[in-house]
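input
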Amino acid sequence: MVEKDLALKTKDKPLIFINHDLLVGKDFVMRGKTDSIDLKQYNLKAYLYGHWHNNYSFGSRDGVAVISTNAPNKGGIDNSAAQFLVIDVDKKGLAK
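output
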């Protein structure tokens, strides 16, 4: 399914991949039983995931921003605005 979605994307358009958990290695390759998908071949700029239920940026790894971000309904007991991560995106990917 992911392969079909990625096939519709032009190679020059930045990819921001959002998943439940960080299910790729340091090389950003998703590996299955019989095949694999190298997300960097699709101009990967950021990998966001939320499994840890916190907001934390791991910085850039090989040119890819790795960010753990909280689900909006998990903003803490008081749903503090500090728990809502804002990410700016531009034509190149994540805006600095």
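quick obs: The CA atoms of residues 56 and 68 lie 5 Å apart.
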